[in-house]
Amino acid sequence: MNRSERAGAFENAVNPGVTRREVWAWAMYDFANSGYTTVVLTTVFNTYFVAVVAAGKSWGTLAFTAALSVSYLAIMLTMPTLGARADARAGKRRLLFTSTVACVVATALLALVKPGDIFYALIVLAISNYCYCIGESVVAAFLPEIAKAQALGRVSGWGWGFGYFGGMLALGLSLLLVSRMSAAGASASQYVPYVMLLTAGLFALAALAPFFFLRERSAPSHKPVEGLLGRLWAAWRETSRSFPDFRLLLLCGACYQAGVAVVITLAAVYATEVMGFTMTQTMVLVFTVNIAAAVGALLFGHVQDRIGHKRALAVTLWGWLAMVVIAYLAVDIQVFWVAATLAGLCMGTSQSAGRAMAGALAPPGRLAEFYSLWTFAIQLAAVVGPLSYGLITWITVGNHRMALLSTGVFFVAGLLVLLRVDFVRGMAMRDAAAECAVSQVGGWR
Known about the structure:
With 445 residues, the protein is an all-alpha fold. It has a single domain, classed as Up-down Bundle (Growth Hormone, Chain: A). The protein is 83% helix and 0% strand. It is built from 19 helices and no strands. The protein has helices at residues 3-13, 20-43, 45-53, 60-89, 92-109, 118-140, 143-146, 152-183, 188-206, 208-213, 228-242, 244-273, 279-307, 309-329, 333-361, 367-395, 400-406, 408-418, 423-444. α6 runs antiparallel to α16, α12 packs parallel to α16 (367-395) and α13 packs across α15. The longest helix is centred in the middle third of the chain and has 32 residues, at 152-183. The radius of gyration is 21 Å and the shape is globular.
């Protein structure tokens, strides 16, 4: 493809007035915050907490997942109101900046966690994850402003794929740091604080691009915003009446993302406790998973736009089921690596696909609010998935294999709900709602 063809492909993917620099800046936020999830939630801090801070007690995994569940519950209750206010005031950029600064500070504070600092670690972890989730929801709401409807999959894939490279950069530098300090005789309690500071610094540096170059395109709706629970309940009732397919998509996402949340949060714990991986081996494993996830997100976005959102997600969910079975049966390390690589491919495709599907059904002018509902579903999944895993390991006295196998139920449930989603009908109702909103906007003022 020559330069003119590449330029034409870009113009066909983005809305008028959107520049390459702005798309790059939007994708840079995925690049920035991926280091947090990769290092803090997936690889280093979770295993450090279970093995060192909680001294390997059987309740360590449950405590870690419970702290995350509290943060996800807080997001579920507050994000719809925050999103509605951002739409009313055209304040998505402001909310993105505030949440990012708070997440960076909280991540840096994790460097102060020492062995035995259980309550401090759990509180700061919950705060950092709450702020991370706000930023993740808000930046997703920019996608329909940037990408054309027929290119939501590929543009979302650009962001997710680029984001995984950010995770790999943070993990790679952390791996280098851990390897050198371990070789010098340092323990986890000595090198993990430096890893947390490194992760916070990379997040702050990479997040500068969207703050400088990402534009706020939606005009303020000036729509009145109800109170906390009132907005949540009103939005849920409205999806039943006016956006039934978006509501089904929320239920589908809540199901399959519960399984995805288990893999993101507890893959490193599983590798350590079941397969006997060391910290260095676990970091290499997650690095490999991120490579596969980047490939999946970058390539599958084009496939999604061609074959349709519903069929693309179904393929991904079947892949997740295959991964669960392979990982459950894996005794040999090489077989587990196959499962981990498949998990990476499915992770990149399913997360990118979900963000694009939400954008396809969300009405213009209410993007932050509807992506907040999508965030509600995802955080509900993030509560149910890891918490169920933690409960099963606790009840079965550390049987991680049984806990992993149980996550297959979430992907089956997601497939069953997906069968009922009609994207053609959903997009038609989205357009009708947008036309109605234009005629009513004067009444909101």
